[in-house]
């Protein structure tokens, strides 16, 4: 089997960890950094390359026109800003890449470039940043807009955003800082210059007033739509990907690699990591019990699924009849996520049938014993061609230990996960294999 990259995607962001679990709140406070530091230490000891922290900037009230379900279930809200958490995670680890989320729609390029450069000095090359375009109208309304701009235009803006951020990092030559005490010259003014950018979306003079990072942070992105794939393949070092079958995984990875090559990039330098949710059981009997429970379509499960897709798509799915064929649905928000949801069942299916199919397939979940899951991930890696996986889930202690304590040894027995870190920094670790 092939050595693969692994990481953890905290899809709940810096929010409530473990709500609904019997161990919720025992020995930790989700608002304090310790629970995330403990998880990061475990990820590093397990051989993970990176820890990605999702973010959002709205209280969702799309589903039924109210925030009731989201607030009652601590789903997407509350959510604290992940950027202040980064130094705590860096201080708790030595090799793990730390990847907070930033919105290219709401962070100005100069602010982002300066902030990330500063954090990368703390990180010693271990920093990444997950770029999102924030499709939510609710989020846009928190930044003075009536609604979010058109989907493809957001990616046009993000393309320019990435270009400006990188040009700001490069506005100081690598040898600009002299620290020449004899001549009394800290930096050579001829090697620090404005970028004088005037584009469609931004006007930025520069130069950056922060010493740029020795190594630029690793960029992560999750483009799923056609335009999103173009953006990701052109700009990203790591792609956070969602796909539920080997064929769809392989097709997606191939499409990203094609875009990368078309933009003059080495496709092997772009790592496509698929999000999976391993649910480890003790034996076949427990596997059957867990699968049956997860497939039960209760009203709570319906509300959970529909409030999630409502928030991510900006479409209120509570307005649709559960037992009528789902009408054509479009969105200016997360088009790939909506497309994946609608196509879960055959065309003409009712909303209830779509939910039933998704419950039976259980989305990204892989339920089984540690050995069964490790075998499955190895086979998936072979079928897809690489590059690895991002485990997802909350990081309350019971969950991460319940998942990783049995699963990591099984992965190691198969030679699927690294046992030591080489090079220095996140980029070097990603390019090692």
Low-confidence residue ranges:
none
β-strand number? 15
Specify the structural class.
Answer: alpha/beta
**How far apart, in Å, are the first and last alpha carbons?**
13 Å
Strand content: 15-25%
Specify the number of helices.
15
Describe this protein's structure.
It is a single chain. With about 425 residues, the protein is of the alpha/beta class. It is built from 15 helices and 15 strands. The strands form four sheets. Strands 1-3-5-6-11-12-13-15 form an eight-stranded parallel barrel, surrounded by eight helices. The protein has a two-stranded antiparallel sheet with strand order 2-4. Strands 7-8 form a two-stranded antiparallel ribbon. Strand 5 (about 95-105), helix 4 (about 110-125) and strand 6 form a beta-alpha-beta unit. Helix 1 (about 35-45) crosses helix 3 and helix 1 (about 35-45) packs parallel to helix 14 (about 395-415). The radius of gyration is 22 Å and the shape is globular.
């Amino acid at each position: 089997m092939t050595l693969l990259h692994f990481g953890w995607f905290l899809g709940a962001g810096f929010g409530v960890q473990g709500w609904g679990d019997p161990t919720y709140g025992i020995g930790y406070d989700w608002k304090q950094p310790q629970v995330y530091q403990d998880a990061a230490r475990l990820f590093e000891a397990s051989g993970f390359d990176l820890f990605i922290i999702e973010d959002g900037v709205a209280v969702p009230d799309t589903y039924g026109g109210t925030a009731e379900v989201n607030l009652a279930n601590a789903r997407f809200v509350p959510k604290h800003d992940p950027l202040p958490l980064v130094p705590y995670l860096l201080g708790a680890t030595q090799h793990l890449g730390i990847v907070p989320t930033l919105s290219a729609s709401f962070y100005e390029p100069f602010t982002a470039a300066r902030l990330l450069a500063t954090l990368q000095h703390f990180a010693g090359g271990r920093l990444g940043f997950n770029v999102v375009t924030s499709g939510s109208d609710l989020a846009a309304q928190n930044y003075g807009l009536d609604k979010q701009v058109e989907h493809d235009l957001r990616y046009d803006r993000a393309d320019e955003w990435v270009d400006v951020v990188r040009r700001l990092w490069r506005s100081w030559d690598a040898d600009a800082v002299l620290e020449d005490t004899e001549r009394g010259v800290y930096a050579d003014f001829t090697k620090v210059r404005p970028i004088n950018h005037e584009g469609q979306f931004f006007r930025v003079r520069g130069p950056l007033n922060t010493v740029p990072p020795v190594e630029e942070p690793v960029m992560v992105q999750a483009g799923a739509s056609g335009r999103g794939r173009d953006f990701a393949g052109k700009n990203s070092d790591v792609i956070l990907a969602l796909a539920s079958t080997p064929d769809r995984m392989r097709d997606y990875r191939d499409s990203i690699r094609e875009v990368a090559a078309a933009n003059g990039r080495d496709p092997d330098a772009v790592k496509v990591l698929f999000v999976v949710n391993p649910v480890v059981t003790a034996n076949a009997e427990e596997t059957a019990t867990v699968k049956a429970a997860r497939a039960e379509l209760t009203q709570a499960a319906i509300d959970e699924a529909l409030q999630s897709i409502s928030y991510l798509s900006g479409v209120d799915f509570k307005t649709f009849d559960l037992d009528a064929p789902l009408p054509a649905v479009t969105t200016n928000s997360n088009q790939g996520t909506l497309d994946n949801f609608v196509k879960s069942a055959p065309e003409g299916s009712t909303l209830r049938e779509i939910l039933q199919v998704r419950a039976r397939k259980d989305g990204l979940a892989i339920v089984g014993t540690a050995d069964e899951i490790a075998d499955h991930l190895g086979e998936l890696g072979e079928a897809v061609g690489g590059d690895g996986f991002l485990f997802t889930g909350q990081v309350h202690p019971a969950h991460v230990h319940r998942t990783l304590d049995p699963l990591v040894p099984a992965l190691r027995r198969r030679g699927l996960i690294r046992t030591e870190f080489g090079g220095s920094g996140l980029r070097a670790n990603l390019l090692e294999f």
